[in-house]
Amino acid sequence: MRRQIRLTTTGRTSGKARPVTLYAFDDDDRLVVVGSRGGAARDPAWAGNLRAEPRATVRHGGDERQVRVKEVAGAERDRLWKLVCEDFPLYATYQRRTKRTIPLFDLEPVEER
Questions:
Q1: Residue 7 — left, alpha, or beta (φ > 0 → left; ψ -120 to 50 → alpha)?
Q2: What pLDDT, on the 0 to 100 scale, is given for residue 29?
Q3: Least C-beta-crowded within 10 Å: which of 37, 80, 94, 96?
Q4: Among the residues of 1-113, which ranges form H helices?
């Protein structure tokens, strides 16, 4: 299921909070986000921020939580790519527009203590 979220990353150069609104897809207790940038030649800035600092904040409705981020690869990426394209087929069009592999990121909630 697709939902709109507010993902706040830490700028890899500035160190400042960088919010962006994205679609996220449910995968068990985690969310998956897609760095499509409409099929542009380069990844979105937020993807680079997540690679540099793999922790972020997700806001959905009134709920806000910290997440640990992992870029997904291999067979797991293939499985998730199919899942997101079934829900939002335009991603397949975006992939055809670009030579880069569109990245997927797994957002796993961090347990509060």
A1: beta
A2: 85
A3: 96
A4: 45-52, 74-87, 90-97
Put residue 26 in one of left, alpha, beta given phi > 0 → left and psi -120 to 50 → alpha.
beta
Residues 6+ apart with CB under 8 A from 70: 54, 105, 106, 108
Number of other residues whose CB lies within 10 A of the CB of residue 73 = 11
Q: What is the CA radius of gyration of the chain?
A: 13
Strand, helix or coil for residue 14 = coil
Asked if the 2-109 domain carries CATH number 3.30.70.100, the reply is: no
Q: How far is CA 12 from the centre of its chain?
A: 16
